[in-house]
What we know:
Blueprint: E1 10-17, E2 29-30, E3 36-40, E4 43-48, E5 53-57, E6 64-69, E7 75-80, E8 87-91, E9 97-101, E10 109-114, E11 120-125, E12 132-136, E13 141-146, E14 153-158, E15 165-170, E16 173-180, E17 183-188, E18 200-205, E19 210-215, E20 220-224, E21 227-232, E22 240-246, E23 249-254, E24 258-262, E25 268-273, E26 286-292, E27 295-300, E28 305-309, E29 317-320, E30 328-333, E31 339-344, E32 348-353, E33 358-364, E34 369-374, E35 380-385, E36 389-394, E37 400-405, E38 411-416, E39 422-427, E40 431-436, E41 442-448, E42 454-459, E43 465-470, E44 475-479, E45 484-485, E46 521-527, E47 532-537, E48 541-546, E49 557-560, E50 566-571, E51 577-582, E52 588-594, H1 596-599, H2 631-638, H3 650-658, E53 676-683, E54 695-696, E55 702-706, E56 709-714, E57 719-723, E58 730-735, E59 741-746, E60 753-757, E61 763-767, E62 775-780, E63 786-791, E64 798-802, E65 807-812, E66 819-824, E67 831-836, E68 839-846, E69 849-854, E70 866-871, E71 877-882, E72 886-891, E73 894-900, E74 906-912, E75 915-920, E76 924-928, E77 935-940, ...
Antiparallel strand pairs: 1-52, 2-3, 3-4, 4-5, 6-7, 7-8, 8-9, 10-11, 11-12, 12-13, 14-15, 15-16, 16-17, 18-19, 19-20, 20-21, 22-23, 23-24, 24-25, 26-27, 27-28, 28-29, 30-31, 31-32, 32-33, 34-35, 35-36, 36-37, 38-39, 39-40, 40-41, 42-43, 43-44, 44-45, 46-47, 47-48, 48-49, 50-51, 51-52, 53-104, ...
Amino acid sequence: MASRSAPNCHLRLEWVYGYRGHQCRNNLYYTAAKEIVYFVAGVGVVYSPREHRQKFYRGHSDDIISLALHPDRVLVATGQVGKEPYICVWDSYTVQTISVLKDIHTHGIACLSFDLEGQRLVSVGLDSKNAICVWDWRKGKMLSMAPGHTDRIFDISWDLYQPNKLVSCGVKHIKFWSLCGNSLTPKRGVFGKAGDLQTILCLACARDELTYSGALSGDVYVWKGVNLIRTIQGAHMAGIFSMNACEEGFATGGRDGCIRLWDLTFKPITVIDLRETDQGYKGLSVRSVCWRGDHILVGTQDSEIFEIVVHERNKPFLIMQGHCEGELWALAVHPTKPLAMTGSDDRSVRIWSLIDHALIARCNMEEPIRCAAVSTDGIHLALGMKDGSLTVLRVRDMTEVVHIKDRKEAIHELKYSPDGTFLAVGSNDSSVDIYGVVQRYKKVGECVGSLSFITHLDWSSDSRYLQTNDGSGKRLFYRIPSGKEVSNKEEMKGVQWASWTCVSGLEVNGIWPKYSESNDINSVDGNFIGQVLVTADDYGIIKLFRYPCLRKGAKFKKYIGHSAHITNVRWSHDYQWVISIGGADHSVFQWKFIPERKLKDSLHIAPQESLADSNSDESDSDQSDVPELDSEIEQETQITYHRQVYKEDLPQLKEQCREKHKSATSKRRVQAPGQSIRLHFVHGYRGFDCRSNLFYTQIGEIVYHVAAVGVIYNRQQNTQRFYLGHDDDILCLAIHPLKDYVATGQVGRDPSIHIWDTDTTKPLSILKGYHQYGVCAVDFSADGKRLASVGIDDSHTIVLWDWKKGEKLSVTRGNKDKIFVVKMNPYMPDKLITAGIKHMKFWRRAGGGLIGRKGYIGPQGKSDTMMCAVYGWTEEMAFSGTSTGDVCIWKDVFLIKTVKAHDGPVFSMHALEKGFVTGGKDGVVALWDDSFERCLKTYAIKRASLAPGSKGLLLEDNPSIRAISLGHGHILVGTKNGEILEVDKSGPITLLVQGHMEGDVWGLATHPHLPICATVSDDKTLRIWDLSPSHCMLAVRKLKKGGRCCCFSPDGKALAVGLNDGSFLIVNADTLEDLVSFHHRKDVISDIRFSPGSGKYLAVASYDSFVDIYNVMSSKRVGICKGATSYITHIDWDLRGKLLQVNTGAKEQLFFEAPRGKNQIIPSLEVEKIGWASWTSVLGSCCEGIWPIIGEVTDVTASCLTSDRVVLATGDDFGFVKLFRYPAKGKFGKFKKYVAHSTHVTNVRWTYDDSLLVTVGGPDTSLMVWIYEMEGYRDKRPCDSEESDIESEEDGGYDSDVTRENEITYTIRALSTNIRPMFGVKPHLQQKEPTVDERPPVSRALPQPEKLQTNNVGKKKRPIEDLALELVFGYRGRDCRNNVHYLNDGNDIIYHTASVGILHNVATGSQSFYQEHNDDILCLTVNQHPKFINVVATGQVGDSADMSATAPSIHIWDAINKQTLSILRCYHSKGVCSVSFSATGKLLLSVGLDPEHTITIWKWQEE
């Protein structure tokens, strides 16, 4: 029984036959090392003709279609197709990735070109706008982008003689681009009279603003500036596909099969006609040329590469061949020699030598070939054709033996029997014909039984049986030669098969994924000796499985290279190689098989670097016997951080609710209260789903997080300071190497990472825009300049930031399973590791991407879940802690050894100068030497070792340790139970902070006359907290069930607790021992209250919609309040203890008489007059104003009134604590709101003397204590926001001018939109009848409007060119402000009107103009810094923000000489309404007219 693990052998790509000549141009070059670089399928190939050796670049995940060579001729850029295509820049010497450029283009990357210095790269996309993008490729940063043209662009090049100029050409156009600032501005080439408007296929730039371009007609067009000055007629007889410039001149290659060489002034030197040479043929078409010295490389449409030496130009040397266009399906291997035969739809059959890596024979047939087989003696080669015929050739001289046509449909599979007597031929007519080889291929039998076309067949070793697969997935058996179907399965039991190429059958069950019904595996071949199976599928992946492979979903190793469908795969006769062929990429790949025994000697076949998650990665996991996940980790992976509504959605939600609340705002609303609260202390630490989130700062304070608060705790003074910049759960925290800054990442739709100063608690940088749902791990680099972060989206995106600039440096998909930790290499800032579920990956930065290699465990190891990781004392050493308690030691990407460190998972590690410290689920802290050879000391966290100064009590011995950090002579430990402990190296343990454990905290009660409160939570504990300066937990008691509510008796001696199972207890408030308990209800007890005064009665509310009233003295139930239609949420007594107010989940406010529980109807006016003992109700006219506009989405969960009945505090589902003035009548009262809790604030309570407000945060497990500050105490703090949900309109309307200006909509000028309404289809979008030769451009047919104009240049344009602007009357004051400035000590004034910037000389009255804008200017500002004298910025109206010429832009220009210094195309969609320079003059701020009024800050010199 074969195990389900992946096989321990390996494939290495050894040779690729073919070259991509179809649909690609200019993709063949000499490198500096005189090697040849080109591509085929998804592989970049570097071929050394001297050594006849190939190297492969395999960083792409799909077909490569474009290639550019860096000016140093070592680096290569390649672009691919695909949904999210990317560009790789790689080294042709080492074939390693240098940089990855991504996230901009879609569909594919059509052309690439480096500039003269090689610093910048330009790319053209295959999207509908053919976007052109300029990159700083080393940084992976996009510098500029613009829509290229409405039609395909075929070539683009930098002008090597003028900086910042590019030329692009394509279908019926050529464009000359200039790059200024971040904007690319095109000018169309004017064809004029010198030549016909036609498609330009290739170009080369020369000196003196000259550009040479090759046209579809075979002419060379010569441009000066943007004008066509002459044409070189008939340079080629047909289209010129490639033009290459070198020191000696230019080489062109065309569809006519000729190469022409030209000198530097484009005078002809010589012609080489490849069709006439010995290797030539009719119809040869040149797609690529490269001229270096006396060598010329030529790539053809039919996948050949020629090398021509100039002085022997009639003897080109053929260095690479492949199949031509058309699908490649047929593959057969010779039974005794290292030969492979392939046949394709190009009608050729070819024989390749696997030893010499060369084509040794080729023969053209009449029909496309679909399958091939070689007879057992190696003499005959049988070919099955697409038209249903069958041809047999002699292998040695390719002469025909016989030609038979018995079928009408294609023959898809044929095989000779092992004894050589029969040939079985399977066709798409659903039958298999049997021919007798010795009887000159006479038909001797037929197997009918399949209902669908035959896909695969295999013979038994004794040649007596045949098995077939068909298109419907059926597997059938036949007796030979009669062709009878075998229906009795018993008969087939002992049959040995001669080969295994079928895709269905018991032995290959495992090649199919567990739950897939798909039929995307095209080919299989079994290697019985090595017990491996190779498969090929529609996704371009080759997989190795063990053979036999019985259970579905078996593990495998996978290899990529082919782009899409692999049509066939076979082992060579001696199992040394695997040959695979690609359908659409018509290439043949030869893989070397490295069996298990060799693997041990060759560690160099470590997993290759890859961007696409494969190359030679194992499958999702290699082991079938993966250890079960630890229960804690299991729990943690199931936590979802998705929210129904995120805080980011609030503005939108408010906007939606706006309309229906216009009415509500007519009444004057109550002002927000003058009093405020300030966060004073937080009990809690987030340990249940976070690790390594606890550190000492520079000055020995402790920094950690809970809920949405970053906490800095001073252990000497027992005080806390807070960072309150987050608005949802913080999930991770990292400290800067200098221990003064902290980075924290939070949950959110577009979650942010904040870097803040622990001293001032002010944010230094906020990073967002690349993660989704949340950030689960962050880490600083050793120099503190960079930050790495990991998101919790499905692919766990990893981002590398330059955090001070707020710039994303690189981004990549991490892993599909959860990543727990990211660590940056302290020695190499470009390297990092991530660890997570069955995942350990080593990454290095490459431009805008990261390249990952899986940790290599070796054949014996098991991939485990990693919970923590650190780097060791050299850049190669890394250590990771596993979920089974081991520490893995890594060198580079190889696992060297493992050390058993803990029982259960190792959750945290910390590297010291001379060793390590680890902490695990077993509650033990272990100190290790610097190589994990021996454990120096262990500390068990036990109650017995708690020091007297502890601020609380340990809940249990050996709590699971989640974070460890060292400093200031102590070890700091964070536990899963929410405790922070400090371990002295001599042993005693001090508990510093603690909170509830995982589970919602709902119950909260404050003591009637002491600064104490009680909480009860779903973590099944009841806790008593001291709120006075000692801030500690006084007592804790474990409960059988989680609890939802609690309440002190009026004398403070008893404490009632309601539990989730419908029972409740009354306990002694000091000892927490039971006094009495009842269990009358089935559902959660939601609120519990003693009656005021003597506390005679106890009201108990449940989710069963009843309130029970008990007599405390007699311990009997005396009344039941019925009548609620939904669960009860809140109850309050009146001062006399005679009346109960009840709130329900259906938003009912009910009143019951006590103790009998009779329902009473009380008018709302009376309710206000009643004196209530407490007010925690959220309903009724007194608190109408506490419900937010978006009350449908969110609930107010709790409220509490101060004893002087002035301020009502509320908590809601958004995590806001709000203060309202009481009574809050009228809708949407104004309030002050505070964010510290993350999602639900489940309860709020004032202390007995109103000095403190206590709040609990539901799932964030925290208990927060706030100081209440009376009016007049004004200490402005960031968390105070005097706002309400609707910005008040009644606070004084707008001035009439302001109102008018506010309502202006700016229309964009007629340049980009038509004024008169248009009907029908624009002429250039109409369907044209295709003609063989393009008609002359000026004809009766409606041409494209732009081109009509360009052809009439002679008639119209001349007189217009002489107009010059002399004077402009007018100034735009009606809707612009601050747009007139003095310049030159008051001699000139500068202002704008329409689209002109005007410099007006006060003395002479003369004007000079800046006229580069193409639409109304709306704002103007002058740079005040002395370094940038007379620098002006103007912003204009524009179309949508697509970065095209009509998009809004900001021009920065010199007022005196009117030179444009920079143009910034921006994402403000309608226009730019305000601009301003910073004090240093280097930054520019702009504000948009778009609905959100976006604000952008530019470094205007760089962008």
